[in-house]
Amino acid sequence: MECGLSPIVGFRFSLYPMADDFVSVIKGALEQTDTSNVWMHTDDVSTVIRGKQVHVFNVAKAIALHAANTGKHIALSGTFSAGCPGDSAGDAYLEKSEKIANTDDTKHYVSSQFALYPLNNPSYMDIIYREVDRAKEQGVFNESMHYASGIHGDIHDVFAFYEEAFSNARSEEHKHLVMTVSMSINSPSHGGL
Stretch 22-28: mean pLDDT, rounded? Predict the structure, then answer.
């Protein structure tokens, strides 16, 4: 398969609860999330979810929310990818409707970092700067840093920005995109924000 032709979006992530009962927090978050709209596989290191973009981002946010709702300090780190050559297993999930399955509107402050990698696009820096500027306009930009940009705010605003950035960084000509995210929720260092 040619690079960029697959419409499947994927997210491989690891969830790190800062708690002795980390296994129950991780398993609980996965079990409480409606994953019927995505292909999912968990191993001893990470979980991958794949399908339509709208459902991948919905499930990713829901898992983070369920883990955060425990009140434990949660760290999540993962990679979104689209247009990966040969990514065809799970095509059946592309037939799902656009209706999202998870609608928890609980608010949580998130401090996070992201990096965009528009693959094979010679204008990649313009794309990255454009999305950073958009984060500033939306009020979710936190700070510039080496190898990433800081994004913070309510979890719903943060995930909405990430999904928009992921959409905006792809084009018909350059469909293969990778975006890394790392986030911290319920951290003692947030000072109750």
Answer: 96
